[in-house]
Design brief:
2 domains; globular; 12 helices; Rossmann fold
């Protein structure tokens, strides 16, 4: 069933108001195909009926399934190597030195839009390697959040396919991954530093509680937002980052025209943002 411009705009605006994700008219076919799947699953016969379902008392439950359909979750371990190298060799030692002088020995990292957990667990592996030296006796907290409940469940399991683990260096793979029948299972040591929760980045009432992070990673998430939504979400990231902390986005993303409070910090092969 082809979606009319009126129905497309109505449903697009509903989604936008809920989570800040904006679907341009060029994404009309994509949204139509995802809506059609949910209409088939719920037995609704028209886009208008489906819209009324979303607005009804049981719409909250259906919205979870719709969010699963419209969010893309292509990711893998050790995805942005220049960022990880900069974190490991320069930024982490800098943060540790600053916090040690203040008498703090706790590191907090947020993987926003964490999908099935590969980024958060990558960071956990890197920090685990520092436990004998730089991070000896430190408390480590890594929090992964996503709006998609299905990928949150996958992340908590910590079981991956060959595609996800293909870039893991051999050292890490030997120490922290166990293969079983074509599945790659994470060591409990990696999982113990990481927690996953559902979070809508557009929800002001929830975002204000994500406090005091030393590093925030939000890769390939802001591309779903229009400028107004980006500004709102990025301001929360700014507020929730420690004064000396760093904010990472995807390689093809930028805060230009979105937020002028961050300053750009360059490193070989990439950049990050700092207050």
């Amino acid at each position: 069933m082809s979606i009319s411009d009126k129905d497309f705009e109505q449903l697009r605006d509903f989604i936008y108001n809920i989570c800040g994700m904006y679907f341009h008219s060029t994404k009309k076919y994509f949204l139509e195909s995802r809506l059609t799947r949910r209409m088939d699953a719920t037995g609704t016969n028209s886009y208008q009926d489906y819209y009324q379902l979303l607005k009804s008392l049981r719409g909250g439950e259906e919205l979870k399934f719709l969010m699963d359909e419209i969010t893309t979750n292509e990711t893998y371990f050790f995805r942005n190597v220049p960022q990880l190298n900069a974190l490991e060799t320069k930024l982490l030692p800098e943060i540790v030195e600053s916090k040690t002088k203040m008498g703090f020995r706790k590191l907090r990292i947020w993987s926003a839009g964490s999908s099935s957990g590969e980024e958060a667990y990558t960071l956990s592996m890197i920090l685990l390697e520092k436990r004998a030296g730089l991070l000896k006796d430190w408390i480590i907290e890594i929090i992964g959040t996503d709006i998609n409940e299905t990928v949150i469940s996958q992340a908590k399991e910590g079981i991956y396919n060959a595609y996800s683990v293909r870039n893991i260096p051999d050292l890490y793979k030997r120490k922290y991954i166990r293969e079983d029948g074509g599945k790659f299972i994470l060591s409990p040591d990696v999982k113990k530093f990481v927690t996953f929760n559902k979070l809508n980045l557009y929800d002001d009432s929830k975002m204000i509680f994500m406090k005091s992070f030393d590093f925030i990673f939000c890769a390939n998430v802001l591309i779903y937002f229009d400028t107004a939504s980006k500004s709102k979400v990025v301001q929360h990231f700014y507020n929730n980052l420690q004064p000396y902390g760093y904010f990472f986005v995807g390689q093809s993303e930028s805060l230009h025209g979105v937020n002028d409070k961050f300053k750009t910090v360059h490193f070989p092969g990439g950049f990050t943002y700092k207050k």
